[in-house]
Amino acid sequence: MNTVVATSRAVPTRPAAWRQIAARAIGALPRLLLILWILLAIPSDGYLGRARADLVLRQAIGPHGFRLVAWEGQALAAKARDLIGRPAAGLGAQERHDLVVTYFAAIGETDRLRDRIERIYADPQQADPRAAAAPLQAQLDALRAEQAQRRPAVEQILAEQVGQVLAEEGLTTAGLIWPPVSFHFAESPNYLIVSPRQRIAVERGIYLDPALSVAQMEQIEQAVERGLDMSALVEATGGFSSYPTMVIEYPGMEWVISTIAHEWIHTYLAFRPLGWHYDDSGAMRTINETVASIAGDEIGRRVMERFYPEEASPPSWPQPRSMRPQPKGKPEFSFGAFMRETRLTVDKLLAEGRVEEAEAYMEARRKELAGRGYLLRRLNQAYFAFHGSYAVGPAATDPIGGKLRLLRRQVGSLAGFMRIVSGFKTPADLDAALR
Asked: What is the pLDDT of residue 398?
């Protein structure tokens, strides 16, 4: 008789199975944590790629990112009220002129009052700075209230004046200024620029809360540099290409009007190939920003000459060398020439792989500038990456600026220039246009 011996293997009950799975997971946890630590600790994008850099940036920025949606909601609501109320309606040409001039004079007075108050609080000899500053604070509060009453009408007047000059220059779409010129005075966001240490380029750019303190800026910069081994800088911005565009209040009327036009150019290009390809490369970003600067400055200058001739300053460029005043005796210090020399030397050192030497050189030059009264908080690769994006300034060495200015001189009208450049999709299109 065949005997069948039954052997059995105990099948764990469901709770026992889950306990075994949990035990295995707990046993593997130290290895998983070790792998994660290695991935985060190694200063390279080779493991997590762009995601790792994003993680480091998010941790560095924390809650200080710029809340664009909230700002847009507030700005659009204000513009809707102004569209209905038309705060500048009924004002004659002279009244509009006087209101705008008064507004900018008050911006300067506001800055002076704020400076005097800060000096009182900084004075160690002041036993009761609050009481000492009280009269000035009362003046400042009253002036701010007056400015709040004037602001909607001033914004409407300046938007209409810029729009009028744009139309005269032919910068229209189907006969209309599109999008309509619309801006709002506000605190513009700060901007975090991240550049590789080995070369000068905007690797990342992130908008931050406009109310950041200097201590918070430096904390963010240090966290980014530690986490990514890159160069970082937080800089203030003069405007923001949202819609309505954001422009800071500044006593210089011509600068503000040029900024209004500059930011409008960005909204204009948003409907055209040049704007669509803004983020394709550093060169395309430079072309976009330089075009906006060239056109914005030109429009701003014409608005000033047309509506505020007594406030207009002579153009700084393009100006033939023969027309420039020649210095007598020892030439005055030129910030632009100093920065250009610095940038060229830094480019040479970085090209030779002498990164630490380039950084030490920039710090020495920053201290030299401070001795001459030019106070730069940081001078590094990120500084030049940001300021070099506008290939018309003292920190710019990129040939794109010279090529675009040459193209502007070759094309008879601003509208013709904008028609050509707005179709650019690659940097090669600029060279082709010049040929």
From this structure: 66
User: CB neighbours of 56 closer than 8 A, spacing ≥ 6?
Assistant: 223, 224, 227, 228
Contact call for residues 249 and 288 (beta carbons, < 8 A): no
Q: Give me the half-sphere count of Cα atoms (radius 13 Å) on the Cβ side of residue 308.
A: 27
The closest alpha carbon to 184, from 68, 46, 23, belongs to 68
Instruction: Report the candidate in 100, 103, 248 with the shortest Cα–Cα distance to residue 185.
Output: 248
Strand 183-185 relative to strand 190-195: parallel, antiparallel, unpaired? unpaired
On whether the CB atoms of residues 264 and 184 are closer than 8 A, the answer is no
Helices (H), 318-411: 335-351, 355-371, 381-387, 399-410
d(CA 264, CA 163): 10
Low-confidence ranges of the chain (pLDDT < 70): 1-50, 314-331, 389-398
What is the pTM (predicted TM-score) of this model?
Answer: 0.71
* Residue boundaries of the structural domains of the chain: 88-158
pLDDT at 263: 93
List, in order, residues 6 or more apart from 154 with CB less than 8 Å away: 88, 99, 100, 103, 185
Amino acid at 405: R
* Cα gap 143→117, rounded to integer Å: 14
What pLDDT, on a 0 to 100 scale, did the predictor assign at position 20?
A: 60
CA distance 259 to 172: 19
From 382, 389, 196, select the one nearest 283 (Cα to Cα): 389
Buried/exposed 296-332: b ≥16 CB within 10 Å, e otherwise: bbbbbbbbbeebbeebbeeeeeeeeeeeeeeeeeeee
Cα 180 to Cα 171: distance, rounded to the nearest angstrom: 11
**Element spanning 266, H or E:** helix 253-269
